[in-house]
Design a protein that fits this description.
There is one protein chain. By secondary structure, the protein is α+β, with helices and mostly antiparallel strands. It is 60% helix and 11% strand. Among the domains are: 3-77; 212-296, Alpha-Beta Plaits (2-Layer Sandwich), CATH 3.30.70.260. The protein contains seven helices and four strands. The chain is elongated and about 120 Å long.
């Protein structure tokens, strides 16, 4: 296998891996309510999907071009063989001349007009016969001919109708294919919408939820000298809209060098906890990355 084909195969495999992994992580981040990461994974998914679709179209065009080239080569080869056969036959055959054309021209004065007139009369007669046959002929298939051509063809008591090649038949087949494609596309879109709704739907929390929650965060900074407790408080202020209004932060404890513990008072159910963790994981503060180490009710 040539290096070019190896690189092409590796690029296709890598594209499919990126497509599958990014699509999986889109669902995972939606389930975790981590919207920024879901958007980034969605961008990678769309990019890989565009690459896969483009490669599929290019492969189809390449196969069609190769097939046309082969057909053209076969036609050229067949034409060359026919030309060689005709040339060989002409070379092998002795030349025969119309000796009667070499006779004096006064003997052709009657022969040529009679020949032309007879040809015109025969052409007109053939035209009338063709018209009459076309007017009285039926559009059914001769049962004897059909039996000779296709013995396995199931012939009923009625003559076999010819295939429907009219414009109405073509429109009907096109309409059926378009309807099937539309139904399949709408079904796939419906399944995707239902899956996304199941991952992102807000459901009411149960009544017996803990009244206090402790969240342990690991904070990592890059080119920033802000205190950890200030960053943890800023994260809470940015994410407090994800939980109920009854939830408030009681205290913030710093565990140097990179840990902070938030103690929250108020009811936090499973959905609010997942939404709050997703917001904190997204780390909406510049140059800071937060990781939720544990959540203890």
């Amino acid at each position: 296998m040539s290096p070019r084909r190896v690189l092409g195969l590796l690029s296709r495999v890598l594209t499919w891996v990126v497509l599958l992994v990014s699509g999986l992580y889109v669902l995972v981040y939606l389930w975790r309510w981590e919207w920024d990461r879901a958007l980034i994974a969605g961008i990678f998914f769309l990019g890989a999907l565009v690459v896969v679709s483009t490669l599929a179209v290019l492969d189809a065009v390449r196969r069609l071009s190769t097939r046309l080239d082969r057909v053209e080569q076969r036609e050229r080869a067949a034409a060359a063989r026919a030309a060689r056969t005709v040339r060989r036959a002409n070379d092998e055959r002795a030349g025969r001349h119309f000796d009667w054309l070499r006779e004096p021209p006064d003997r052709l004065g009657v022969f040529v007009p009679v020949l032309l007139g007879t040809g015109a009369l025969l052409s007109g007669l053939a035209y009338l016969i063709e018209r009459a046959a076309g007017a009285v002929a039926s559009t059914t298939v001769d049962r004897r001919t059909a039996g000779l051509l296709a013995p396995d063809l199931p012939l009923g008591p009625e003559p076999v109708p010819p295939p429907d090649t009219s414009r109405e038949g073509a429109r009907r087949r096109t309409a059926v294919a378009a309807a099937a494609t539309a139904v399949g596309t709408l079904g796939a879109i419906g399944v995707i919408v239902v899956v996304l709704m199941a991952f992102t739907q807000s459901r009411p929390d149960p009544e017996d939820v803990p009244r206090s929650t402790t969240i342990e965060l690991q904070l990592r900074q890059r080119h920033s000298d802000r205190p950890i407790d200030e960053v943890a408080t800023a994260l809470w202020i940015g994410c407090r809209g994800r939980v109920s209004r009854e939830v408030a932060m009681r205290s913030t404890t710093v565990d140097p060098p990179d840990r902070a513990v938030l103690v929250l008072d108020g009811p936090i159910g499973p959905l609010d906890r997942r939404r709050l963790m997703g917001c904190l994981q997204d780390a909406e503060l510049d140059r800071w990355l937060a990781t939720v180490r544990s959540v203890r009710p």
